[in-house]
Amino acid sequence: MRLGILISGRGSNFEAIANAISRRKLDAEIAIVISNRAAAGGLEIARERGIPMRVIESRGMERETYDKLVIEELRTHEVDLVCLAGFMRLLSASFVHSFPGRVLNIHPSLLPAFPGLDAQRQALEYGVKITGCTVHVVDEFLDSGPILLQSAVPVLETDTVESLSARILAQEHVIYPKAIQYLVDRRVTLDGRRAVIQEEA
Ligand code: GRF
Fold first, then answer.
1. Is 107 designated active site?
2. C-alpha distances in angstroms, 55 versus 9, 14, 32, 36, 97?
3. What pLDDT digit, counting tens, does each position of 75-112 carry?
């Protein structure tokens, strides 16, 4: 399976996916990394590893116009599955429909709780005792779409946004490659909102 990874920043989830591939835990290939920001740290990771990458700046661009450029680049690299990894833009419906059921996202909360920005801070301020992270199929709405995998992380009394985010991130790095492998193994069937994961053969 050929992956197209979309980033905006640090790129640690992208790196976790690349690591899972090199450790043969994930049977896929990163065809292209696309960043909408030239300053994204993740680009350096791609450069070091010799992974094809491209900056397509989004600033000041209309959503549909931007998405068209990204779709074109993904098609050029024959991408089968698009993985959003800290990509800070909402995708248009036409993007989502160009890769039906083939766009994934990772979000740092147990969705549907705390969608949107600063999910870890939202969880801390709300006072939940358990939060976590979610890998889901992307639809045209924000942090919506069928859930593939979640991991729960306890909130400690002593937690700050930083400490909680770090523990959640460690789990993100575990579940994202795992969820992608579900798709590689064709174990996922969508039944409306529900992603049904078949037992391992
Ligand atoms: C992660 O917390 C992810 O859940 C959220 O954005 C952050 C991206 O981090 N969508 P990184 O760029 O993968 O390090």
1. yes
2. 12, 15, 11, 6, 23
3. 999 999 999 999 999 999 999 999 999 999 999 999 99
pTM of the model: 0.97
pLDDT tens digits, 37-52: 999 999 999 999 999 9
Q: Which amino acid is at 174?
A: V
34 neighbors 53 (Cβ within 8 angstroms): yes
Q: Which of 77, 107, 136, 173 is catalytic?
A: 107
Residues with Cβ within 6 A of ligand 1?
Answer: 7, 9-13, 42, 85-86, 106-108, 169, 172
Distances 152 to 30, 73, 139, 164, 172 between C-alpha atoms, Å = 28, 35, 23, 12, 10
